[in-house]
Amino acid sequence: MANPLAGVRAARHRLKETHPLSVLIAERLGLSVLLLWAVSVLIFAGVEALPGDFAETYLGQSATPQAIANIREDLGLDRPITTRYFEWLGGVVQGDFGNSWASGAPVSEQITKRLGNSLFLAFFAAAISVPLAVGLGMVAVHYRNRIPDRVINVLSLAAISLPEFFIGYILIVFFAVQMGVATFPSTVYDNMGWSERLGAIALPTATLVMVVLAHMMRMTRAAIISVMSSAYMETAELKGLGAFKAIVKHAAPNAIAPIVNVVALNLAYLVVGVVVVEVVFVYPGMGQYMVDAVTVRDMPVVQACGLIFAAVYILLNMVADIVAIVANPRLRHPR
Amino acid sequence: MTDPIKHFASRVTAHEMNRREFIGRSMAAGLTLAAATSLYGKAAMAQEPKRGGHLKLGLQGGSSTDVIDPAKSSSQFTFAMNRNWGDTLVESHPSSGLAVPSLAESWEPNADASVWTFKIRKGVEFHDGSELTIDDVVKTLNRHTDEKSESGALGVLGSIKGIENKGGDLVLTLSEGNADLPLLLSDYHLVIQPGGGYDNPNAGIGTGPFKIDNFEAGVRATFVKNENDWRTDRGFVDSVEMIVMNDATARMAALSSGQVHFINRVDPKTVGLLKRAPNVEIQTTSGRGHYVFIMHCNTAPFDNNDLRLALKYAMDRETMVEKILGGYGKVGNDFPINETYALFPESIEQRTYDPDKAAFHFKKSGHDGSVLLRTSDVAFPGAVDAAVLYQETAKKAGIDIEIKREPGDGYWSNVWNVQPFSTSYWGGRPTQDQMYSTAYLSSADWNDTRFFNTEFDKILLEARAELDQAKRKEMYHDMALMVRDTGGLILPMFNDFVNATTTNVSGFVDDIGNDMSNGFVASRLWINS
Fold first, then answer.
1. Which class would CATH give B48-85+207-278+502-528?
2. How far apart are CA B39 and CA B26, in angstroms?
3. pLDDT tens for residues B183-232?
4. Rounded Cα distance, B121 and B137, in Å
5. Interface of B with A (CB under 8 A)
6. To pair with B80 at 20 to 30 A between CA atoms, which of B107, B213, B234, B401?
7. Could you give the ipTM of this predicted complex?
């Protein structure tokens, strides 16, 4: 019994009994850091493996051996890969993401602006699409296999089946070119007024809503239907529970987990995966910023973008899990 | 308007043709006297620029890695930006391509073109109010050529050995004579900056028609008029907004909905659709860029000149221009120079599609079996289609071409300049000498046809220092013939620059120097209403 580890293990077990959620969050956060570190190694190795380094790709066709050598020396690209990686990591640990190789400006400064733009667009797209999807899902369940359900299904499936750039082009043609009511291009910039900004993002927001709507709507519909047909709902009904009480106490906790998961996935997509929409609408978000950086192998920028994207995914997934656990008492005490 | 008449009209607008000449030539081209007179009136009216307004451009080619520092300028976007806020010592003439004065008033070479003296213009003010001095000029050129230079112009200026201020004049000493030196100084990287830009290369302080107001890399740049501009024949609008639009469809939508006045890089495949928009005018300019099929002259089976000739005759150039460029281009003649270059050798016969000759040379070469051609769409837009088209026309001559489609990523490092037969693209150079030195001199890094010809090398170096234009033209004629008849270059087409404006702007000049009216689009356009 002198094993100290056993004591620690027992303490951890006790802690888990008393504060299950805090322990889970702490564990998840620890794992996230590890995951982010692994992501940084992968990105670094990936960019290194691409043909051509920053000096060559940045100078392009006008490159001369002397200019390439000067840039390499300037940025220390001639040093071994491990030295460069750990130097970068050392900076990040202290909160310094370094300077962009291309522009020489601090990465954090540039990213703040672009991330702000991306979050701005994602926020409005989510604020419209999530309630709409869940609401439509419920309406579909209510009119299950009847006309409203069919219409909702067909329309949302049609929207998801079209590539996002195509939806974008259609909206541009009708609302910007032919009717002239919408703002295009959707470029936002410093010291632009709020109402102008909102006007500018109207079309890209509409596109994104159409793209993510179907996935969340169908998951809501499927989750509720599957729960409603389960045995314990029948039991609840048989033991005389009212329909509303049965849904709140038994159906909702079980249906919320899959819905939240899908919502989280789509929110993450709205932040990190919309580069095509950005390009079509000429919107200065994170996606285009990272693509530009990858094109010239601008490592500090690629790394910072990659880490932010990974962090967004990890964070949203964690939030989804926590919400699911909080909502469902059965998951709080896993055996 | 038909093309020749449109061309005459643009020459009237550019003060290069008078009324008599214009009407005479237009009537010769099939116009009635009344129509020609009225057209002349319109073209001459277009000479009177309207001032004021806010000009918006939607441009392809911007990236969030762009910087203002002209030494590091490499995108289409920063190229056009440089032209707005800065000036170079020399500019190239829009239609002849010859060197014309800008910040340098005049210049004189010595007898063997190895020492050049430039008189620098007096009374020119930078945006920060300081006056342009010879010191600024010397320091600027130093910054682009010193041992720490990261400049894109370093390759062009490689032969400059001395940059000095002699009694207020700029004196450049070269390691070897170069009759084209003034044109080399028109390179868009070589914007003259106060103190050479050593202190703050990204300050964007220059002598150009517009001052930088705001710049967000990869998003947009805004400019306001420079009220103290030393020239009055440019910079007509009050402010300019350049927006990065990398998506071709987005550019077309922005132009046809009137959100911008100008876009670049119109896709030849959709230009027909854009033309239908009532408020849009397509602006095409002959370019120096060319789409090529390159063979290594020193690698079997392409080390046989008969096989190379067979493959050259098997190319249907007219159809290529028609199908791949949508008609927006000119046929090539298997040497990398076209009429937009000064001293272009006009007298060389145009090579045409000739299956019989191709079959004859193919048989003579003794080659047996198929020929492997590698391609990818990154080589040039439509390269894979072009390869298939070529395969078809070669088949009629009994030549079997096998096409291998290579991945786009890494094409320039793994296929181009590595494999013996591939598709590729070349942008133009300011002079014939530059074009040949970059890719056809035996010692050139980018000799992508492995063209080794000591006679050619010798004439190239002689022509570089030759100040007698007639002699020089003769030399370029001989060099062109050597490349055309013995080289590994199949050059089916030169692509035009296809831009578009809305109909309420005027002043676009067809400038053979480069795309977007040689980058001067914002300083040349004005808004009519």
1. alpha beta
2. 9
3. 999 999 999 999 999 999 999 999 999 999 999 998 999 999 999 999 99
4. 11
5. 58, 63-67, 72, 74, 147-155, 158, 189, 202, 214, 216-220, 243-247, 249-250, 253-254, 256-257, 259, 409-410, 413-414, 427
6. B107
7. 0.83
